[in-house]
Amino acid sequence: MPSSEATTNLLHVPCASCFGLNRVRSDRLSDVPHCGRCKAPLWAEHPVALDDATFQSYAGQSDVPVLVDFWAAWCGPCRVMAPQFEAAAKAARGQALFAKVDTEAAQRTAEQYGIRSIPTLIAFRGGRELARQSGSISTQQILSWLQPHLG
Q1: How confident is the model at residue 24 (pLDDT cuts 50, 70, 90)?
Q2: DSSP string, 33-77
Q3: Cis omega (within 30 of 0) on the bond before 119?
Q4: Residue 131: strand pairing partners
Q5: Residue 15 placed within a domain
Q6: 111 is in which domain, residue-wise?
Q7: pLDDT per residue over 111-126, tens digit each?
Q8: Mean pLDDT of 133-137
Q9: Residues whose CB falls within 8 Å of the CB of residue 35, separated by 6 or more in sequence, listed in order
Q10: Closest by alpha carbon to 110, among 66, 60, 71?
């Protein structure tokens, strides 16, 4: 039987491959845990592409921060920020999940969150919006902006 301390430190972490919800002990997050359903690593190598069908199962249920980049292919600043966002995802692996939402393909989700300019970053935890930042920013700025929402 697990100790009460171990059960109180269980976090819900969605899988980037099958979108199944996993329970992971908080002290094991940096150990690259794998999905109990599909066995894929829970920390994806790259930001996960979300759409209207997958957004809530990923960003809406996670106990760890999920940083979402709302973008569009035609947007120049979005294209400039894409490698910065990718680098931030690698740097914060094991601390936060990173996802991208193409506002052209996921119009319902973009409308639900009132996306009026892109790129827009929103940090979520448990489906709740923690913070929002519009405009293209550097890797270091992304990490600094995210820092208060980790842990």
Answers
A1: very high
A2: -B-TTT--BSS-SSPEEE-TTTHHHHHTT-SS-EEEEEE-TT-HH
A3: yes
A4: 123
A5: no
A6: 45-149
A7: 999 999 999 999 999 9
A8: 96
A9: 15, 17, 18, 20, 22, 41, 42
A10: 71
Active-site annotation holds for 75: yes
pLDDT tens, residue by residue, 3-23:
444 455 899 999 999 999 999
User: What was the pLDDT predicted at 4?
Assistant: 45
CATH number at residue 111: 3.40.30.10
Token pair belonging to 58: 């990923």
Catalytic site residue from 15, 18, 38, 78? 78
d(CA 144, CA 83): 17
- Of the candidates 15, 18, 38, 75, the residue annotated as catalytic is 75
108 domain-assigned: yes
- Does 25 reside within a domain? no
All residues at 6 or more sequence positions from 16 whose CB lies less than 8 Å from its CB, including other chains = 40, 42, 43, 44, 48, 58, 97
Q: Please confirm, yes or no, whether 78 is among the known catalytic residues.
A: yes
Q: Phi-psi region for residue 127, left (φ > 0), alpha (ψ -120 to 50) or beta?
A: left
